[in-house]
Design goal:
This protein has about 120 residues and is mainly beta. The protein has one domain: Immunoglobulin-like. It is about 10% helix and about 45% strand. The chain is built from 2 helices and 8 strands. The chain has a 4-stranded antiparallel β-sheet with strand order 4-1-8-7, with no helix packed on it. A 4-stranded antiparallel β-sheet has the order 3-2-5-6, with no helix packed on it. The protein is globular, with a radius of gyration of 14 Å. The chain starts with a helix and ends with a strand. It binds calcium ion (CA) (2 copies). The site of one calcium ion (CA) has 7 residues, from loops.
């Protein structure tokens, strides 16, 4: 399978394609920055890894919401903040999407999360 086919399979599935992916699929709709994490300025450069690949990246400040609209296979998502060399990217948080919820809080502490990810089950 070449990269272009994989990209299409794992990041922009139709519901018919998603139905055959074992473990189900989730459509990531939006992400809201509740609290930026970065020490470099006041914006984060967050990106989401799911299914072994980067499915979204952006730049976000506290209070901003970004549209993702990507369908992922599997239910594990990890959010990182990209930082300039020589710093390593920071892990903000990871989560397991569930069939009953439609939001996942990532990073920070339980009462004070950093990001709110919204999704649909497809
Ligand atoms: Ca950082
Ligand atoms: Ca950063």
């Amino acid at each position: 399978m070449n990269n272009m086919v994989q990209e299409q399979l794992f990041t922009d599935l139709t519901s018919e394609e998603a139905a055959i992916v074992e473990g189900g699929a989730y459509r990531l709709t939006t992400i809201e920055c509740l609290r930026a994490t970065d020490g470099f300025g006041d914006a984060d450069e967050p990106y989401i890894n799911a299914g072994g690949r980067k499915v979204w990246s952006g730049s976000m400040q506290k209070g901003s919401t970004a549209t993702i609209n990507k369908t992922i296979s599997g239910n594990r998502v990890t959010l990182y903040d990209a930082d300039p060399w020589p710093n390593d990217d920071d892990l903000i948080g990871s989560g397991i999407l569930s069939k009953k919820d439609r939001t996942e809080l990532l990073g920070g502490s339980k009462g004070n999360p950093s990001y709110r990810l919204r999704y649909k089950i497809v």
